[in-house]
Protein: NAD-dependent epimerase/dehydratase family protein
Organism: Streptomyces spinosisporus
Amino acid sequence: MTAPPTDPPAQHTVLGSGPAGTALAKELVRRGHSVRLVDRRADGPGLDGVQRLAADVSTAEGARAAVAGADVVYHCVNVAYHLQVEVMPRVQEAVLGAVEAEGARLVVLDTLYPYGETGGAVMTEETPWKATSRKGRMRAELDEKYLAAHREGRARVVLGRSADFVGPGVLNSTLGATVFPAALTGGEVLGFGDIGLPHSYTGIEDVATGLATLGEHPEGDGRVWHLPTAPAVSTRAIHEMIEERIGGPLKVGVLTEPRPVGPFDAQFMAEYAEMFYQHTEPQIMDSSAFEQAFGVAPTPLGATLDATLAWYGEWLAQQQ
């Protein structure tokens, strides 16, 4: 007797192979999905269970090639900071057009930028979008277009917002390469702004878990969700947690205003100046709506720091 036909496995396509996209691809494989990881060159290290594809998703042709055959597409593309206002709208137009034509669902990795300055108020999904910065207004305009495409039935879209990244593989973050290598080698750890203020950081593994969860739950479509994020503590408290783990005090230097330092060159910091408010007022992100809706809790901050220190230890060894 012939076995009944079975549906082919869903194709999950991740656009962007930075820390978020890479962590997400691994998480989707862990969940048993067929996974394609797309970037401009497809020359990164091999990942078990992941098909790599080269495509430029800032073009209509490249985006169509990237999402061909996909059931769920995850937009984790980012570009150099000084190019974001120019390039990210082009990426949106190409990707949104491609998923509309393909009939795929679209999960977008988003930021807190659309909220703008909040005066330290806790940010929830109900917080008004009042950004005044160029990049904040750009992100808000993109998000409005994503949600409009969903409302109008042109595409099925959901947005997952994250706070600043922290975790294995995360270099270009205020809690990244300016902190952990120095902590492990006795150098100067860099803090931004008022390090005594509470500041939310989203573990990169929680970014991956959150986006994968949205990819598996179409009932969450059509809105913004805050991805699971550990309760905010001050950056100074995080430094103290690192000190406990390395068994000694950190040498901390504080950047009180935007200027070039370490991996953040003059071009980057000139663009980042308008976002420096994130370090002069509390940045508190509440992800309880996501946690309650999907039963997913954030990784405890201590566990994220343990994993991050371990990864940076290996990374430093490879630099020698």
